[in-house]
Amino acid sequence: MTLSVSKSQAVDLRVQPIDEVLDRIEWSLQAHLVPGSLVRKRRSVGARTDRDSWVRIERRLFDKISDQGWNGTETAARLEGIAQPEWHGCVVWRDHDEPVMWRADETDLLPGEPVGDAILSEAPKLSDDWWLMLNASLDALAAQNTKRIATPDTETITQEFVTESVRSVFAGDFDTAIERWVPAHADLNWANLTAPAFSIFDWEDWGSAPLGLDSASLWASSLAVPALADRVRYERRADFESRDGKVMTLFACSKILGPYAHPEDPRLEPARRMAEQIMGDLQDR
C-alpha cells in the first residue's frame, strides 16, 4: 500500500487508503489512534489518541505550500485571547513517490462537538454566550499581528486574487480595492467551530486577509438557513458594514455563484440578492 496518491487523480482523503500514513504517525508521536474515532474529510483526516488528544492529518502538493511554510496550527498556538485547542506537537514528512508533504498536528481534544458540516441545512442551538465567545475570539484575532498570509482553500489571498474572483462572476462599476488587512482564520465555517463549548479549530490556512473574510465565510456557510445567516450578519455587523466587509461578501458570493455552482444549492438565490445589494452599495460610494 502506498503513502501517496497520484497527482493525476483527484485527491479525496475520504476514500483514499491511508493505513501506512496512520502507522507512521502512531510511531512518530508514540501514541495509538483510537479505533473507530477516525473522521475523514476531503483534505484532512482526524483521530483521537489513547492519551486523550486529537491528531489532524493533511496531505498537500508542493505547489500548494507557500514560502511561509505549512505550519498554521503550530503558529496559531501563540495567538492570545482565542478559544482554540492547545497545540502539543507535530510530525511532517515528504512523500518518497510524489511531490507531496504529509503533516500531523496533535492538539487537545475539542471541548465540544463540531457545530455541523461546513454548510448547514438546519439551525443549530447556540447560546448567547456562544455568540459572545465567537465575537471575542474573532475580535482578538483581528487585533493581532502576523506576517503570515492567509490561504483560503490553499490559495494565497492577495488583492489580485480577490479582484479576479469577484470580477469573474460580477460585472459593474465598483471598486474591489481592500483598505485593511487583518489576521483571519481563513476557513471559518460550521465544521470548524464547536458547541455547546465554543472553540475554533483547523488553523492551517490562517494569516493576514481582508477585513471581513471570516465573517463573510461564516455567513456564506449559513445561507441555507436564513435566520442563521441573519444572526451572523447581526453579530458581525461591524465587519459587514465596512467597505472591506462588503467586498468580502461579494468574494464569498462569487464562490457560491461561480462556474462550479450547483443548480440545487439553496444558497444561490440569497447569494444573488445579497450580491446585487452589495454592488449597489459599492457603486454609490
Total tally of structural domains = 2
Broad structural category: alpha+beta
- What is the string of helix and strand elements? HEEEHEEEHHEEEEHHHHH
Radius of gyration: 19 Å
Mean pLDDT: 92
- The number of helical segments is 9
- Overall strand count: 10
Tell me the major beta sheet.
Answer: 5 strands, antiparallel
Low-confidence stretches: 1-9
- The helicity comes to 25-40%
Bin the strand percentage: 15-25%
Distance between the termini: 59 Å
Question: Reading side by side through the largest sheet, how are the strands ordered?
Answer: 1-2-3-5-4
What form results from the Cα inertia axes? globular
What would you say this structure looks like, in words?
Helices cover 33% and strands 17% of the residues. Mean pLDDT is 92; it is low at 1-9. It is globular. It is α+β, with helices and mostly antiparallel strands. Helix 8 (243-257) runs antiparallel to helix 9 (268-284). The termini are far apart. It has a five-stranded antiparallel β-sheet with strand order 1-2-3-5-4, with helices on one face. It has helices at 19-29, 72-76, 128-142, 159-167, 213-220, 226-235, 237-241, 243-257, 268-284, and strands spanning 39-40, 44-48, 53-61, 87-94, 100-108, 113-114, 181-184, 193-195, 199-200, 207-210. It folds into two domains: 19-108, Phosphorylase Kinase, domain 1; 113-284. The protein contains nine helices and ten strands.
